[in-house]
Design goal:
By secondary structure, the chain is α+β, with helices and mostly antiparallel strands. It contains 19 helices and twelve strands.
Length: 435
């Protein structure tokens, strides 16, 4: 189900997507009134961690519409208008989050940070304008028309929460004691039982969308439905799929414990997929076997021998005996990103752009129509360079958080110059296009 992201295309270059016609409009000289957005957002507490090393202006995180046990969440309050940043900072906030009969009130809050949120697709348009030599000054000044205040709070659903609605209420009070009550936000809370009963994937697209957007909308309990959907999938035991599952299990131990307790009722193949995932996440085989039916135990003891341990995705040394070793590692690194949103695996892939000399030599060889004399370290580096650029370009187009990371690294002097230059050419470099 979980497609291989890079390795199957390492000898190809992809074409750039056609630019959509998008414009940034503003009435010159007309003041934009400052006001709150209608209602607060509930977002993952990990969002703030993702942004730690990013500049002020970022793409919006996904608004949570469904919450599960054990998840850590925070609140964002938005504003629009010319003076929105000082407006948001100048308020004192009271935030109340209610789940069932339990309410948690956070009083006298001030924003931990205020972030300007980019217009959807603005990074892509600006990159295309710069690449074409067209002026981007006005568009750049209009990248953001909305800001969000984020708070240093970490809310977790109560342990006894039942299926129902979570309500988020926010009151803001300005320095002159003017109060503003935002409209309440309502979000669904799903227990493990409901997620197991109703959280199945209606089709392959929903399944893949769940995986590709997991870091924005984590739903760890649906991993059981992934195991079920994967029992006839030849990709179920591929390293990138396995690493994704392991990272999901590690991200929410409470959900993992619940899932483990349910494996004994599943189809034998589903149990095997699940046991492999738990082993990859660092669980002991002894503990896993104790959670399974007695009839499974002798057979499942053989799993570590039949299914090798995951390779280290950060071992990116080229291998002349396996030219797709590094691109395959990129697949695993992207899986780690998709499960966590962590910049570390993306940064490791970007380091492959330092092999641009070897990449350009390999491109010239492809153009010549000649066959290589053999697999050399230089050729393996060239293949890996092209795979890195192709996959980074694809994720740049489709994952706003990756776009934020790349835009920050393009301006970061701590990033090697060659990598910065190559990141700036992701959309135009012919080495990253498909024939």
């Amino acid at each position: 189900m979980f497609r291989t992201l890079v390795a199957v295309s390492v000898l190809l270059c992809i074409g750039t997507l056609p630019l959509s016609a998008q414009s940034f409009k503003k009435v010159a000289g007309k003041p934009q009134p400052t006001e709150f957005m209608e209602s607060p957002w509930l977002v993952g507490a990990e969002t703030v961690k993702h942004w730690q090393e990013l500049p002020n202006q970022v793409n919006a995180p996904d608004y949570r519409t469904r919450v599960y046990p054990g998840q850590h969440l925070t609140v964002a309050v938005g504003a629009r208008g010319d003076n929105r940043d000082p407006f948001l900072r100048g308020q004192i906030y009271t935030i109340s989050i209610t789940a069932g009969s339990e309410s948690k009130v956070f009083e006298r809050l001030q924003p931990a940070q205020v972030r300007r949120v980019k217009a959807q697709g603005a990074d892509f348009v600006l990159s295309a304008l710069r690449a074409s030599g067209a002026g981007s000054g006005e568009a750049e000044s209009l990248m953001s028309m909305v800001s969000f205040a984020f708070f240093d709070l970490d809310w977790v659903p109560p342990a006894n929460a039942k299926d129902g609605t979570i309500k988020v209420m926010v009151k803001a009070t300005s320095q002159d004691s003017t109060s503003h009550q935002l409209e309440n936000s309502k979000i669904e809370f799903w227990t493990y039982e409901r997620a197991v009963k109703e959280g199945g994937f209606k089709d392959n697209k929903e399944h893949e969308d769940w995986m590709m957007g997991y870091y924005q909308r984590p739903e760890p309990t649906r991993l059981l439905h992934h195991f079920r959907a994967s029992k006839d999938d030849q990709n179920a035991f591929k390293p990138n799929t396995r690493l994704f599952c392991a990272e999901v299990l590690k991200s929410n131990p409470e959900a993992a414990h619940d899932l483990l307790s349910r494996l004994k009722e599943e189809d034998p193949v589903v149990r095997i997929i699940g046991v492999v995932a738990f082993l990859d996440a660092g669980y002991s085989l002894t503990g896993l076997l104790e959670a399974l039916p007695a009839d499974d135990r002798e057979r499942f003891k053989m799993i570590p021998e039949k299914i090798p341990a995951l390779p280290d995705p950060y071992d990116l040394a080229p291998d002349t005996q396996n030219v797709i070793k590094v691109p395959s590692a990129f697949d695993m690194l992207w899986s780690q990103f998709l499960a966590t949103g962590d910049p570390k695996p993306v940064r490791a892939i970007a380091n492959g752009l330092e092999w641009r000399k070897e990449g350009k030599d390999f491109l010239a060889l492809k153009k010549s129509g000649k066959k290589p004399d053999g697999i050399t370290v230089e050729l393996a580096k060239g293949v890996s360079y092209m795979a890195a650029g192709w996959s980074l370009g694809s994720f740049y187009r489709n994952h706003p958080l990756v776009t934020d990371y790349i835009e920050a690294w393009k301006k970061d002097p701590a990033v090697p110059l060659a990598v910065r230059e190559e990141l700036g050419a992701l959309l135009t470099n012919e080495a990253f296009k498909r024939d």
